[in-house]
Amino acid sequence: MEHKVSFRGTGKEYFGIWIVNTLLKIVTFSVYTAWAKVRKRRYFAGKIFMDDEPFEYLASPRALFRGWLVAAAAIVAYTCADYFSKMLGIVISLIIMAFFPWVVVKSRIFNFRNQSCRNIRFGFAPKYAEGYRVMLGWPLLVPFTLGLLIPYVFYRQKKFLVENSSYGTTPFRFTATPREFYRIYTTLVFKVVLFSLVFIAVFVGVAMFVPKQVGIYILMFLSVLPFFLVVVYFKTAIANLVWNSTELGGLKFQSSMDVMDMCWLYFSGGVAVIFSMGLLFPWASVRVMRYRCERLSVHSQEGIGQFIADTASASVGAVGEEIGDLFGMDVDFGF
Fold it and tell me: What Å distances lie between residue 59 and 4, 84, 132, 295, CA to CA?
């Protein structure tokens, strides 16, 4: 049995939410950030359907605001310390980075606990020690292996994030192997070398045959293009692998995003946002979300009625979520 995932939002609908959020964050000097985040997440969650059942985002703006206050105080302390003493600023930044695994786990707990489908909430296990091993311990070993450990680190991190997640009382399972991550990494390295050779050849051709004024703009574009293609390939390939290796009870997920489709969505959306001075950002965001949902399906033999809700109702703080946002920590690892 196949269960279709769909996104039923529109750029016009999201524009109304986005423009109000943007204006209110400006006039309140970012104090409205928590309420803006909740409005955005409730809209996107409520427009994602599995069959005809929508997802829900249940977080309270006040919980996020309390977390935002703590995070804002931390960033003010860091800024003041860095202004008076560069060394003290470095020390504080290292301390903040040392909290990164805690931030990831805390943020994951908060966001999963506040998402639901069919009146059953998601969850994430508070395994902080394991979080430190996979988010900080293994990455610290990468330089000593000349980068050869990078695919294995990605594997361990994705495995940690998936297998500690749950839907109701049912945990997710992760069936990918390190070899599959190394295969993507090997292909990525090959593409980097190939793009570098092509860029060098084009650079020589432009320098020899194209007028200097025009050549500068061509080379600027071409210098960004290989990096763009490599990043989109890596993110798309990893996302497909992780979804296709994820199981929940009797459910199996299948993601079939195409790299060139994603390149076109990001490129055309980026151009539209730039030339509209940001006003088409909601349209670009909705296009990407719709495509991701269209390329994701869920397969089962017994249907999706066998899950049991987790009756635990302990409140979860949003400090980790807001610290991650304000300090630019990439805590959204996705699946």
Answer: 26, 38, 26, 27
Q: What pTM was computed for the model?
A: 0.86
Report which residue type is found at 97: M
User: Quick one: 130 exposed, middle or buried, by C-beta within 10 A (0-12, 13-18, 19+)?
Assistant: middle
Which range has the worst mean pLDDT, 73-82, 106-115, 128-137, 157-166? 73-82
Place of tokens 């309390």: 66
Contacts of 193 (CB under 8 A, 6+ apart): none
- Over the stretch 3-49, which tens digit does the pLDDT of each residue have? 889 999 999 999 999 999 999 999 998 889 999 999 999 999 999 99
257-284 mean pLDDT? 96
Residue with tokens 């994701």: 296
Residue 321 sits at the vertex; the CA angle it makes with 329 and 247, to the nearest 5 degrees, is: 90
Determine contact, residues 168/120, Cβ cutoff 8 Å: yes
